[in-house]
Amino acid sequence: MSGYARGPFGVDWEDRIDFPRLRSDRIAAAQQALRTSDIDSLLLWKDENVRYLTSLRAQLIAGKMSSLNGVLLTRDAGPVLLCSGGEIDKASMGMSWLTAAHPIPIMEQRELVDGFVKATLAPLLNELGVAAGRMGVDQVNYSLVESMQTHLPDLQPTDGDHLMQQVRLIKSDDEIAIIEEACAIGDAVTQRAIDSSRSGRRENEVAGDAMQTLFYMGGEMAHVITPFVASGEHMSPPHRICTDKIIRNGDLCFIDIGAMWNGYFADIGRTMMVGKPSAMQKRVYTAVYRGLMAGVDVMRPGRTNQDVADAIIAEVREHGFGDNLFSLFIGHGIGMGANEPPYIGETLPGSTVFDLKPGMVFAVEPLVWVPDVQGGGGVRIEDMVLVTEDEPRILSRVEYDDRLLE
User: Fold this and answer.
1) Is the dihedral of CA 299, 302, 305, 311 positive or negative?
2) CB neighbours of 124 closer than 8 A, spacing ≥ 6?
3) What is the secondary structure of 375-392 as a DSSP string?
4) Could you say which residues of the chain have pLDDT below 70?
5) Where are the beta strands (DSSP E) in 79-227?
6) How many degrees, rounded to 5, is the angle at CA 341 between CA 336 and CA 345?
7) Element (H, E) at 42
8) Hey, what long-range contacts does 56-62 have (CB within 8 A, 24 or more apart)?
9) CA 258, CA 193: separation in Å to the nearest integer?
10) pLDDT for 2
């Protein structure tokens, strides 16, 4: 199945993604994790967790992401979708794999939340035999927690997001095939932005062209809600949005938009040159590129995230820019979460060292910026990388800018 993106359509002449198997496998993985944990049930609201367990592709309202749709899962019963009233007919008529679907309000107004707990949640939990015990939750409004404490006093809320992160950590063959397809779309989006980046255009024009390609290709959304197109001095330090700045001759231009397809994300970033690069711009780009390649090379079973970070930092330092790395992690896990644990190069308190395992997928994204360089001295290159039993596989295929390599 995996190895390349075969195409997003269903066809009768080639094996492609088996979506019923994918849904069944995801539910089975979550239930197996529940059975081996001290958690009796899950009540989840984060988009990626709801999508993982129900396959609901919902309308999303800005600022309301974890207040619109939820899912209830127990160790033995299939997923119960708790969805916005605008989704209930679609779910009831077209999602036969669900155990049940119930309409809910936007989970904000205290009185409506309390009504949901009394009229919908409590009867469901009693019916499923999990009105007492430990319930894993992820992102919830505190009014929901208080209402559950009042009406379900024998229920103990606990962290369910960590369990779901572990369930989603190793991607199945079907999941990898979807990510391959998301990368193909993300490559097309990135290439459109590269082709549109030229002197005299604005950053937001480039982002608009790229977003048009995203939707033309069947993508669901960008990796970042705010498309990232930054040119020239806007990469020193990085402005992680697109603006009305006019791209000028001599500017570096960075694109980071990516794509989601069937719930899985591709996060791809490229820096390209408008005009001829300066010596410093070439030095910075070469350091980032060599650092990225050094990091990818050690992404094999038996190595750790720390090994990857050390390889990238050592190579960047060898080029003289060790003190110019962006103050953010250098890579992150990716799948149904646009940006999810585990992380590479995280330096904040609580950072952990973990072993790399086959089936892990990362977006690796070193960024170096140098101040006071005309046309910008900031470069990031970002690739999607799959850890395999053998050599790592770069899933993104957009070309690098050879004009910037020393």
Assistant:
1) negative
2) 72, 80, 102
3) T--EEE-BEEEE--SSS-
4) 1-2
5) 80-84, 100-104, 133-137, 155-159
6) 135
7) strand 41-44
8) 56/81, 56/83, 56/87, 56/91, 56/95, 57/220, 57/263, 58/83, 58/84, 58/87, 59/84, 59/86, 59/87, 60/221, 62/225
9) 11
10) 56
- Give the span between the Cα atoms of 131 and 269, in whole angstroms: 46
Q: For residue 278, what are its two tokens? A: 């300066």
Q: Which domains does the chain have, with CATH numbers?
A: 19-168 (3.40.350.10), 170-404 (3.90.230.10)
**Residue labelled with tokens 């939820």:** 70
CB atoms inside a 10 Å sphere around CB 177: 24
Distance CA 364, CA 362 (A): 6
Is residue 197 within 8 Å of residue 247, measured between CB atoms?
yes
The pair of three-digit structure tokens given for residue 105, joined into one six-digit string:
């309000």
Q: For residues 365 and 168, give the distance between their C-alpha atoms in angstroms, rounded to a whole number.
A: 21
CB neighbour list of residue 213: distance below 8 Å, 6 or more residues apart? 188, 189, 192
Q: What is the pLDDT of residue 299?
A: 98
Residue type at 4?
A: Y
Q: Please tell me the predicted confidence (pLDDT) of residue 61.
A: 87
Indicate the SS3 state at residue 404.
Answer: helix
Query: Residue for token digits 């059975």?
Result: 35
Containing 147, the helix (H) or strand (E) segment is helix 142-151
CA distance 227 to 248: 20
Phi, psi angle pair for 213, to nearest 5°: -65, -40
Question: Which contacts (CB < 8 Å, 24+ apart) does range 104-112 have?
Answer: 104/69, 104/70, 106/64, 106/67, 106/68, 107/45, 107/66, 107/67, 107/68, 107/70, 107/140, 107/141, 107/144, 108/64, 108/67, 108/141, 108/143, 110/143, 110/147
* The two structure tokens encoding residue 264: 């899985």
Contact 353, 387 (CB under 8 A): no
- 188-200 confidence digits (pLDDT tens): 999 999 999 999 9
Rounded distance between C-alpha atoms, residue 219 and residue 185, angstroms: 7
Quick count: other Cβ atoms within 10 Å of Cβ 289? Answer: 22
Report the SS3 class of residue 295: helix
